[in-house]
Amino acid sequence: MPSEHGMHIEAEIGDWCTEIPRLVVGEVVATHVDEEILDQESKIDLAKAQMLVYSGWAWKYWDLGKN
């Protein structure tokens, strides 16, 4: 079930933090990874996965695969 970028993470929402706006606490319950985004040590190669991080506070996305 990996996504178009080779990875899919499933999580269950635990709590909505009322002290910090937009903070959600949850638990990762499953991870699916295509072998084509793994490096020689079977670790996820961030450049191949083209992963992004979103900051709700800054309202921006960052690419994790670039230095």
Beta-sheet strand percentage?
Answer: 35-45%
Going by helix content, strand content and strand pairing, the class is mainly beta
Mean pLDDT: 81
Order of helices and strands: EEHEE
Ends apart, CA distance between termini = 29 Å
Structure commentary:
With 67 residues, the protein is mainly β. The protein has one domain. The chain is built from 1 helix and 4 strands. The strands form 2 sheets. A two-stranded antiparallel ribbon has the order 1-2. A hairpin with a 4-residue loop joins strand 3 and strand 4. The longest helix has 4 residues. The mean pLDDT is 81.
Descriptive terms for the model:
single chain, 67 residues, mainly beta, two-stranded antiparallel sheet, 4 strands, 42% strand, flat
Describe the secondary structure blueprint for this structure.
Blueprint: E1 7-16, E2 24-33, H1 46-49, E3 52-55, E4 60-63
Antiparallel strand pairs: 1-2, 3-4
Quick overview:
The protein has 67 residues and is mainly beta. 6% of the residues lie in helices and 42% in strands. Strands 1-2 form a two-stranded antiparallel ribbon.
